[in-house]
Amino acid sequence: MLILNSSETIFVTLISYGGNPRAHVLSVTYVKGGTALNVIPPYVEFGGTLRSLTTEGLHQLQRRMKQVIEGQAAVHRCNAYINMENEGYPAYPAVVNDESLNLHVQRIGSLLLGPRNVKMGQKVMAGEDFAFYQEKIPGIMLSIGIRNEKLGSIHSPHSPHFFLDEDVLPIGAALHTALAEIYLNEHHQSVEQ
């Protein structure tokens, strides 16, 4: 959340601090301010999300955003209050799949479903609780394709038109079972010790 107090208009620009600009996203998702077209409001509040492909990248983006906003507020003789906590919760770290588990999923998925049915997904900058687990133990997040144009299952889970082709559920259950069973069989000696 950001609250700006001013009798002047302020325009804030966040310039890329270096690195790959496609590895970071800043989304302003709400703006609250005045109610009249001809009156400058005493304050403006806006907020949104910051996302990065790495947790360190997220921390760098947070620091840079704070620098830019405070600097622009000072230039315009404004006060800026920046709160990057989401109702007392920490920012989501990046989801980074463990390389050895990734290879395990590729191998078992290829055995079960055939190599042409196992594809590397695109990197995405989603906020995901699973990342907190990955800070404690190695983990992997995977997706099981559900697209079925004949049934109309073509929209992403965040779409209001999302429809699940339930025929994929046994495939997903079999894949998860095989992943766990083979992993445990291959690593049972290290677990027993």
Automatic annotation (TrEMBL):
One Pfam family here: Peptidase_M20
InterPro entries for the chain: Amidohydrolase, Bact_exopeptidase_dim_dom, Peptidase_M20
GO MF annotation terms: hydrolase activity
Protein name, entry field: Peptidase M20 dimerisation domain-containing protein
